[in-house]
Structure formats: structure tokens, C-alpha cells
Design goal:
Layout (H helix, E strand, L loop, with lengths): L1 E3 L2 E9 L10 E5 L16 H7 L14 E9 L3 H8 L3 E6 L2 E2 L1 E6 L2 E8 L5 E4 L10 E8 L37 E2 L3 E6 L3 E10 L4 E9 L6
Antiparallel strand pairs: 1-12, 2-3, 2-4, 4-10, 5-9, 5-12, 6-11, 7-8, 7-10, 13-14
């Protein structure tokens, strides 16, 4: 069983390393990014606030400054049948299709796993141990998109950044694309057993026109 978490979340933008937010600035439609007009997030901010944060919409929307972090929050209401199965040993896994660029998950104020780093890969967390007995749990997620300018920048990027530090071969043609901060793929939760099939690895055998498949089970519930 699974349940989508796409839809409207609360969001706010705070200075880096600030305490957990107590107030939010508006709603954002997941899975659209902060800069996307479809998310509606920038419409929640005043022109003065957007100017303060250095944010604007496309074309060529800038990324969120490394001085700030983007926070998401929503209530997490599990189906009643899930809670009964969790009590019998099943687990609840949070899946995030992609989040640019670093992401840390909190459930009811408890940090779950280590922060994920990377803006283009899917990841997951077992959040079972952080769930409460309350009807609605609180899911809080912190995201940051820290552009490291300079020749030694390590963060992977595409064509969003034009840098004078470029030293590659050939001409450096400035190609300006809108930046992305936060979720840009779907978010959902899944009810799984303590052992489950996580993936199947297939090896084609072209001459015989058959393929070999190797199942990759999980000995215990997955963690990021």
C-alpha cells in the first residue's frame, strides 16, 4: 500500500542554521519547485520579501542563496489500517523522488537518518520509529541549495550557473536556465514488511533472447 504526499504543504525560508520554524510564509504545491510558477510559492511572498531573498520566477530564476534554507511542513495522517499493521511489525517508508540539493527529514521533531545530498536521485527513509500514537504526525523537511562558486566547487550542476571560474576546453557560452530549490519529484509513503523486494537486476542474454533476473531482497526495512 502507498499514499501520495503530493499537494499543498506549508513553507518558509529561514537563515541557515536557524532553529526549527514556528511560523510559515505560505503554501507550496509539491512536487513543483520553489521557483516554479506552478508551485504558487512565490505568489505567497511580498515583493519586498522576494527582493530580500533574491528570488524571482522564470525565465532564468535564481537559486536560493546559500545563506538561507527552505523548510516544508505538513500533517501526516496514516490510514487506521496502517497503524494496526505497524503494531504487528510492518514499517512506514517515506520516499522522495528528488530534492535539490540537500534534504533532512524530521518527524514529530525527531531527525530521521542522515541528511541526503544530491539533487537528482531518489531516496527513502524508514520513519516508523519516529511516529507517535497521535492521529496526525508532523512531517518537517529542511532543504538547501548551496551554490559553491569557484574553481573548486563540488556541487553537481547543469547549465544553471554561469561562472567566470570556468576553465574547460572550448568556448564558454552563457546558457541561462531557471534554478531549482526543494522538491521537484513526487513524495509518498509506503507500508512495507520487515523484508521486501527492493529492486530486480536484469541481465540480458542477447544470443539466446532470454534474460536473467536477480531479486534483491531487503533483510530489514530500508533506511537512507
Amino acid at each position: 500500500d502507498w499514499k501520495t504526499l503530493n499537494g499543498r504543504w506549508q513553507f518558509c525560508i529561514q537563515k541557515r542554521d536557524a532553529k526549527d520554524p514556528t511560523a510559515f510564509e505560505g503554501n507550496i504545491l509539491v512536487p513543483f519547485s520553489l521557483q516554479s510558477p506552478l508551485s504558487g510559492a512565490l505568489d505567497s511572498l511580498s515583493n519586498k520579501r522576494k527582493q530580500q531573498l533574491g528570488l524571482s520566477g522564470p525565465p532564468c530564476a535564481p537559486g536560493l542563496s546559500k545563506r538561507y534554507e527552505l523548510w516544508y511542513q505538513r500533517g501526516l495522517e496514516l490510514p487506521q489500517a496502517w497503524r494496526a499493521q505497524v503494531a504487528q511489525g510492518k514499517c512506514v517508508v517515506l520516499h522522495i523522488g528528488a530534492c535539490d540539493y540537500t534534504c533532512q527529514v524530521f518527524v514529530n521533531g525527531t531527525a530521521v537518518g542522515k541528511p541526503h545530498v544530491g539533487g537528482s536521485t531518489a531516496f527513502e527513509y524508514d520513519i516508523t520509529g519516529a511516529l507517535s500514537s497521535n492521529p496526525v504526525d508532523v512531517l518537517l523537511i529542511k532543504c538547501s541549495d548551496h551554490e559553491e562558486k569557484g574553481a573548486n566547487a563540488m556541487e553537481l550542476r547543469g547549465k544553471q550557473l554561469v561562472s567566470k571560474a570556468y576553465r574547460g576546453p572550448g568556448p564558454h557560452v552563457p546558457t541561462l536556465y531557471s534554478n531549482v530549490t526543494g522538491f521537484w519529484q513526487s513524495v509518498w509513503i509506503e507500508l512495507v514488511g520487515p523484508r521486501r523486494l527492493r529492486r530486480v537486476h536484469c541481465v540480458p542474454r542477447c544470443l539466446g533472447r532470454v534474460s536473467e533476473a536477480a531479486a534483491c531482497p531487503s533483510k530489514k526495512s530500508p533506511r537512507a
